[in-house]
Amino acid sequence: MTTPRVAAIHDLSGFGRCSLTIVMPTLSAMGVQCCPLPTAYLSTHTGGFTGSTFLDLTDQMAPVTAHWRQLELAFDAVYTGFMGSARQIGLTAAFLDAFCGKGRALAVVDPVMGDHGRPYRTYTPQMCRAMGELADRADVIVPNATEAALLLGVDWEQLRLDRAEDCRRWARALSLDGRRSVVLTGTALTPDAAGAVCYDRDTGSAELVSAPLAPGEFHGTGDLFASVLAGALVRGMSLVQGAQLAADFTSRCAARTGAQDLPRREGVDFEPLLWRLGQAMASDENRRTIQ
Questions:
Q1: Cα distances (Å, whole numbers) of residue 289 to 5, 104, 240, 285, 286
Q2: pLDDT tens digits for 282-291?
Q3: Could you count the other beta carbons within 10 Å of the beta carbon of residue 265?
Q4: Residue 129: its pLDDT value, please?
Q5: How many CA atoms lie within 13 A of 73 on its CB side?
Q6: What DSSP assignment string belongs to 160-206?
Q7: Cα(148)–Cα(51) distance, rounded to whole angstroms?
Q8: Residue 40's beta-bridge partner residues?
């Protein structure tokens, strides 16, 4: 079996688990080759730290894209996350146009724009519109409730994600009439569980997944969830299987972090549990071989 290959377009922080410092080890643990295209380098992430350095790598994105095209590289998926400017979003859209579609790489877009009902302070209305256009190119999107509201152009408070019928309705609305699959995170059907609703464009079904809710908030859980999902999809899992694995693993890592009372700004303590992802991939491969 050829090792799947994913191009990951994200920023890189030297300290604080997020973006590429989560994406790369997670995909590797799942038996997936990660080919990073960094959009920026920061000394630390910006959640809980001040005074971080910032090296903008936007000018490298087009040359990297051109070189990889010249080499005739092919990817099983392109996975995108946080963007620092409208220009970066445009260059990422050009990358998707170059490598995705028509039986080529799967486009997995995490439309990172905001949380808790508000866009991030760096996200202008222009950037939100550009992110919506990038998401239009996706085969799979992984928004939270705030990002879903921004994509749909509705008030965040309308997105009730504590009732199954509403979760399914919003996921279908985000699918653009079934043109793309959706994993809408942040569902809360019970007080002690969190999860996602998955609309699969191939089956037309919308199913819910959930896992135990760890008290508190943890930096990097969104990146961890989307990375596990992307890895699972290129390893042959269905959308629902991948989302369930992502929910379970993220829940375990958050619980571990909380139990150790680690500084939240350092991110979720996931590295000691990466073996579970390798085990899950081996178990799934064995199951499909037997079938």
A1: 21, 25, 20, 6, 5
A2: 987 766 666 5
A3: 16
A4: 97
A5: 21
A6: --SSHHHHHHHHHHHTTTTTSEEEEEEE-SSTTEEEEEEEETTTTEE
A7: 31
A8: 56
Residues 6+ apart with CB under 8 A from 8: 20, 23, 24, 27, 34, 35, 36, 37, 78, 79, 80, 81
Q: In angstroms, rounded to a whole number, what is the distance separating the alpha carbons of residues 34 and 75?
A: 10
One-letter amino acid for residue 104 of the chain: R
Cα gap 131→133, rounded to integer Å:
5
Quick: pLDDT tens for 239-255.
999 999 999 999 999 99
Q: Are 20 and 49 in contact (CB under 8 A)?
A: no
* CA distances to 35, 165, 229, 277, 283 from 288, in Å: 27, 32, 18, 17, 9
What is the tens place of the pLDDT at every residue in 40-69? 999 999 888 888 999 999 999 999 999 999
Q: The tokens 């653009």 sit on which residue?
A: 176
Residue with tokens 């499909």: 288
Report how far residue 142's alpha carbon sits from residue 49's, in angstroms, rounded to the nearest whole number: 26
- Of 34, 44, 38, 43, give the one whose Cα is nearest residue 58: 38
Question: Do 211 and 248 touch, CB atoms closer than 8 A?
Answer: yes
Which candidate, 190, 185, 167, 83, places its Cα nearest to that of 133?
A: 83
DSSP 8-class letter at 113: -
